Amino acid sequence: STVLVTGGTGFIAQHVIDKLLAKKYKVVSTARSEAKYAPLLKNFQKKYPDGALTYEVVPEISVDDAFDEVFKKHPEITIVLHTASPASFGYDLPLKDAYLKPAVNGTLSILKGIKEYAPQVTNVVITSSVVAMMDLRSSGENRTNTTVTNDMWNPITWDEVENPMDAYAASKKYAEKAARKFYEDEKPSYKLATVNPPLVVGPQVFDDLVAQEMNSSNEIVSMVTKLPPSTEPQATLPSFTIDVRDIAEFHVLAFEKEKLADERIAVAASACIGQKVLNILNDNFPELNGKICKGDYASADKLEEDMCPKFDFDSIVEKAGGYDFIPLETSVIDLFKQYLAKYS
Ligand code: NDP
User: Fold this and answer.
1) Residues at CB less than 6 angstroms from ligand 1
2) What are the DSSP calls for 323-342, one per residue?
3) What sequence ranges are listed for the domain NAD-dependent epimerase/dehydratase (predicted)?
4) Which residues, in sequence order, are bridge partners of residue 3?
5) Which parts of 95-163 are beta strand (E)?
6) What would be the CATH architecture of the domain defined by 2-202+242-268+311-325?
7) Cα 9 from Cα 252, distance rounded (Å)
8) 6, 12, 311: which to mutate for ligand 1, most atoms within 8 A of CB?
9) Which residues contact 194 (CB under 8 A, 6 or more apart)?
10) Class of residue 82 by CB neighbours under 10 A (exposed 0-12, middle 13-18, buried 19+)
11) Which of 15, 32, 176, 222, when mutated, tests ligand 1's pocket best, judged by the most ligand atoms within 8 Å of its CB?
């Protein structure tokens, strides 16, 4: 089968494409420009010399007909993985233009493109987020007493958005809602799944493309390295995480596994708290000892228990036929090994 992967230059999308090529799928990817995709294409062609990866330029996903030409040119596409959506911070644009428009319009433009030009499509998978499900604004007991499950929706409305994080969360919720409404209204013959990742951590596919500035989710996890020296418990970053290679695998399982093909696929490996990330780094990277905060080593488990939101995605794991998640320790070690090899 031929799989379309939008946002092909993205952190997660690169791993999705890597998994697809390893499994012998043909892949059509999209990128904003030829210049942006060229280094990636070169690396993928070296790793998979059979020419199974091609790409098309889609400079802006939020225009109505963004993907029409791609579908016209590639009638062989039967599976669509839509990962493109604004996922960084620091845009020089009003929040609505930076997040909401591309997220929602991009999702609708891909679904409209399929409707008009690609009736042969059998499966669509849209990358949503756990921020479409959980209220990031809640704190204290409200946060830790809630168990996030895959039928929840973040109550945030666009009117309540106060900062880029709110805007990102709202954009993911509105985009997923828009996709589900389109699907209910149009009743297409394909199956629609969403993948709703928590914080995604791990290495890049290609060592030589590791950028000095990390992608935003790895950057969030790595912020602990900038904490000042302290022997206090470090309660930053209360969250839960998944390795990028695992979430990429779930994008593939989302269409390969019949039971997941119309699901809302939220999965996570483990809770995460700043102190735990610091412990992993201090244990495994002697070159960082003395340079990064130590905090209070022994407090990690209790902090995690007290501060992190809980999750229960067992029903999805069961539908996947079980799954062994890469532990946070491996994700953090692999991320930093790769990064420090280039920038230490
Ligand atoms: P990246 O920023 O690495 O990837 C996002 C991709 O989308 C890039 O290829 C980007 O292209 C493209 N894109 C964004 N906006 C537009 C636009 N307006 N027009 C065309 N292309 C656009 O982020 P991730 O890989 O982390 O995220 C991928 C998906 O996963 C997103 O939908 C994100 O919301 C979701 N997600 C990510 C999580 C994480 O922790 N990383 C957690 C939960 C969900 P360019 O770089 O050229 O702008």
Assistant:
1) 7, 9-13, 32, 36, 60-62, 83-88, 102, 127, 129, 172, 197, 199-200, 215, 217
2) --PPPHHHHHHHHHHHHHHH
3) 3-257
4) 27, 79
5) 123-127, 147-148
6) 3-Layer(aba) Sandwich (3.40)
7) 17
8) 12
9) 125, 126, 127, 128, 176, 179, 263, 264, 265
10) buried
11) 32
pLDDT in tens, 187-214: 999 999 999 999 999 999 999 999 999 9
Residue 140 has pLDDT above 80, yes or no: no
Determine the average pLDDT of the residues in 310-319.
97
Q: Where are the domains of the chain?
A: 2-202+242-268+311-325
Say how many C-beta atoms besides its own lie within 10 A of residue 213's C-beta.
8
Q: Ligand 1, from 5, 11, 96: best to mutate by most atoms within 8 Å of Cβ?
A: 11
**Across the chain, how many H-helices and E-strands are there?**
13, 12
- Looking at the CA of residue 7, tell me the nearest atom of ligand 1: 9
**Which tokens hold the place of 23?**
């499994």
> One-letter amino acid identity for 39?
P
Task: Report the alpha-carbon distance of residue 344 to residue 340 in Å, rounded.
Answer: 5
- Strands 199-201 and 239-243, how do they pair? parallel
**Residue 82 CA: which ligand 1 atom is closest?**
32
Walk across the sheet containing 2-6 and list its strands: 53-57, 26-31, 2-6, 77-82, 123-127, 191-195, 264-265
Q: Report CA(302)–ligand 1 centroid distance (Å).
A: 33
Q: For ligand 1, atom 4, name the residue with the nearest CA.
A: 10
Q: Distances from the Cα of 176 to the Cαs of 106, 125, 131, 252, in angstroms?
A: 11, 11, 11, 19
- Give the pLDDT score at 144: 80
- 119 has pLDDT over 80: yes
What distance in angstroms lies between residue 37's CA and the mean position of ligand 1's atoms? 14
Q: Which residue has the tokens 């060229």?
A: 38
Ligand 1 atom with the smallest distance to the CA of 60 is 19
